Amino acid sequence: MAGIIVVFDFDKTIIDVDSDNWVVDSLGFTEEFERLLPTMPWNDLMDAMMGKIHAAGRTLDDVAAALRAVPIDPRVPAAIRAACALGCDLRVLSDANAFFIDTVLDHHGLRGCFTEVNTNPSRVDADGRLRIGPYHAAPHGCGVGTCPPNMCKGQVLDRILREAAAGGGRKRVIYLGDGRGDYCPSLRLAREDFVMPRRGFPVWDLICEDPAR
Description:
Layout: E1 4-8, H1 19-26, H2 30-36, H3 42-55, H4 60-68, H5 75-85, E2 89-97, H6 98-107, E3 114-120, E4 122-124, E5 130-132, H7 153-166, E6 172-177, H8 183-186, E7 194-197, H9 202-209
Parallel strand pairs: 1-2, 1-6, 2-3, 6-7
Antiparallel strand pairs: 4-5
């Protein structure tokens, strides 16, 4: 199993919901989020929403409390721990953000199972407000057409595979995801790899539309 890299999406894969929507809804900012949604890219919108949440007097602890209440199927942590115990190299590749993911993984005692978390960076500024940035600071130039402007998961997976090969040969990949952004990395997999799309979700539909690609 040491020759296997398991790559997990986060939203609607490790957890049962979209963490961005969950936090916004839990803290009572759904109406403001929906008003701004047509006006800016999602990643920029979430940074703006963290500013509005902070300005309304909600703290980082409030955000973390909402994240600790995120629904997760108990079989998922069990499967992650089992794969880790078998020696698989586990990675997260997600268009969420570092604070959200780390908070949830730490709450469930899973952070140590993962070699790395690849996601949009986040930081807490001097005022205690959470800032969320893009993974790719410049346009990433992916031509697949399903990646958001702030992150091409295919390019991130390419980097993971290059580093793994440099460390002793190509590893077999198992990729788990659900969204449109997970389609691009699924196209980077070799014949010996596996993609496990969540049935009925966007990446499942995209793969079914062109299974020979």
